[in-house]
Structures are given as C-alpha cells and as structure tokens.
C-alpha cells in the first residue's frame, strides 16, 4: 500500500525527474541487502501500474530489470517482480502485445518455481497471467496453453482458497484461446469438469464465483448446446443455485452427449469421497447417483460396482 501511494505521488508530481530516480534505484535491485531489493522491486512493480513509465520511455528498461529479479534468492522479491510484469497490463496495455512472449514466459517460470513452499510466487504468476491474457497475441499463448492448463490443475483443490480461486479463474480465461487446440484443450476441460462442478459447493464464496465463471467459459467448448445453456443461465455470478436440481440436469446432458465418459467421471468423483470439505464430500456421491440414473443400459457395463460400493 505504501509503495502504491509513493508510486501514485511520483507519477503525478515527479514526472521529468523519474528517469533519474529510476536510474539511481536500479543498482539497489541487486543489493546485498534483501530489504533494499524488496523495497525497490515493490516500487518498480507499482510504477509499472502507471502509463507514466511508457510516456517517459522507461518501460523497457524497468521491465528488463524487474524480469532479472525472477532468480532472486528472496521469494518476496520474485513475487513482486511478477506483480510488476503483470501490472503492465493496466499501466501500458498497448505494450503487452509487443512483449507478450517474454511476459508469458515469466509467468510460466513463476508457476514452475521450485523454491516456493507456500506458493506465493505461483499465486502471483496466475493472477498476473489472467491480467495479461486480454492483451497478448493468440500465437504467443498457444504454445504454452497446454502446459499452463496442466500446471494449474492441482491448485483447484488447494487448501489455500486464494490459490483455488486464482487457478480456476485463470483456467476460465485460458478457454478463450482453446479454438486452435480444440481437441487438446477439450481433454483439459474434461479433466477439470468434475472438480469445477463439485467446487460449486466450496465453503468460500469467492471460489464458487470463480467456478461459475470457469464453467460459463468452458460451456461453448463442450459441444453440447444444452450444457452450455445451463451453465450460462444458471451460473450467473450473483444468482443463487439449487445445486441438486442443477446437477441432475447437468448429468442428464453429460450422459446424453458423453455416455462413454461415465466411468471416468465416476472415478474422479470417488476421489472426493475423502475431501476435507463436508459439502463437497456430500456432493460427490450425489453426482455419481445422477450419472448412473441418466446413463442408458448399454453404457452401464462401464461401472465397476465393487469399486463404487467400497468408495475407493
């Protein structure tokens, strides 16, 4: 907050002096003192939220220096560096297209950060990537689309609600780019579908809203008009949902359009029989019940009754 206030004041009043200020601060980005690296990276990150750096021809210099902090030993510095790169989407959106490939690579590297025990860097990478997606060239995201979708999938069930929310929102945003890789990305939608539907019962309202958004975005890519219409009509952000009735109808459409998916959908639901969240634990067997209710006899042979009865 303090960095944001300073950035705002600098952008308004420092104007012509900013290039000299930035020049004098750049050496502290590699200071031996962690506190100096944190403070300067935070300041640069907030400054990148303003178009003034573009007006003063500072954007490329600042972007290159902030990008260089991605290998910093301090997790907070790495996180703030990604925040700064993501802030370019609001500070200089017209420049995101030009630097799209470089910015996207930074976000993917952040999600793959190996020394991030609390996933702070990954969280910032997902949040920043969602902001950048509205401005990047489609060709730049296509080569990374599958990797990102697979990488964020485990976060859907994270104990940290902010990770669940950010990863699910990002997944929804990625579907905008799925047309060129329709079949490949459709597989990722199927992999996440059960989780997204069950997390409509998530204890955190912000995660529920993220699931509604992601499912609305997935709908047009599923090749089932009835399912798409259901997601669009019933999953509006602030509309209350009669979950049981909704799931009954969802399963009807699923079994009409993808009856061969029955066993796969059941197996995914079985995993949630041991969920830490009681409402999700209750939703999983109901989901299975509706699937079996609506599948035709020809496809019932897919069901492993012993596995289903044991709940494992």
UniProtKB/TrEMBL annotation:
* Protein name from the UniProt record: MROH1 protein
What gene does this protein come from? Mroh1_1
Identify the GO cellular component terms for this protein: cytoplasm
Q: Which PANTHER family match?
A: MAESTRO HEAT-LIKE REPEAT-CONTAINING PROTEIN FAMILY MEMBER 1, MAESTRO-RELATED HEAT DOMAIN-CONTAINING
What are the Maestro/Maestro-like HEAT-repeats domain coordinates in residue numbering?
Answer: 68-310
**Signal sequence segment:** none
In terms of Pfam families, this protein maps to: HEAT_MROH2B_C
Natural source organism: Calonectris borealis (Cory's shearwater)
């Amino acid at each position: 907050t303090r960095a944001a206030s300073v950035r705002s004041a600098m952008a308004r009043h420092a104007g012509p002096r900013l290039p000299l200020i930035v020049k004098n601060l750049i050496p502290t980005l590699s200071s031996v003192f962690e506190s100096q690296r944190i403070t300067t990276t935070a300041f640069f990150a907030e400054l990148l939220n303003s178009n003034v750096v573009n007006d003063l021809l500072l954007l490329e210099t600042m972007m290159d220096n902030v990008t260089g902090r991605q290998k910093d030993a301090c997790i907070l510095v790495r996180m703030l560096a990604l925040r700064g790169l993501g802030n370019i989407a609001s500070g200089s959106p017209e420049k995101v297209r030009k630097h799209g490939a470089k910015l996207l690579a930074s976000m993917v590297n952040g999600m793959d950060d190996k020394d991030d025990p609390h996933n702070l860097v990954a969280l910032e990478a997902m949040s920043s990537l969602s902001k950048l997606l509205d401005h990047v060239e489609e060709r730049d995201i296509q080569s990374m689309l599958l990797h990102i979708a697979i990488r964020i999938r485990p976060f859907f069930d994270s104990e940290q609600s902010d990770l669940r929310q950010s990863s699910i929102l990002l997944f929804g945003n990625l579907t905008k780019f799925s047309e060129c890789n329709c079949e490949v990305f459709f597989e990722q939608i199927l992999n996440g579908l059960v989780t997204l539907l069950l997390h409509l019962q998530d204890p955190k309202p912000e995660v529920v809203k993220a699931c509604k958004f992601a499912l609305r975005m997935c709908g047009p890519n599923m090749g089932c008009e009835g399912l798409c219409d259901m997601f669009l009509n019933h999953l509006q952000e602030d509309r209350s949902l009669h979950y049981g009735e909704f799931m009954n109808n969802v399963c009807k459409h699923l079994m009409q359009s993808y009856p061969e998916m029955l066993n796969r959908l059941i197996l995914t639901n079985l995993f949630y029989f041991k969920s830490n969240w009681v409402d999700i634990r209750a939703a999983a067997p109901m989901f299975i019940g509706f699937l079996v209710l609506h599948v035709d006899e020809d496809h019932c042979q897919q069901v492993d009754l012993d596995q289903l009865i044991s709940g494992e």
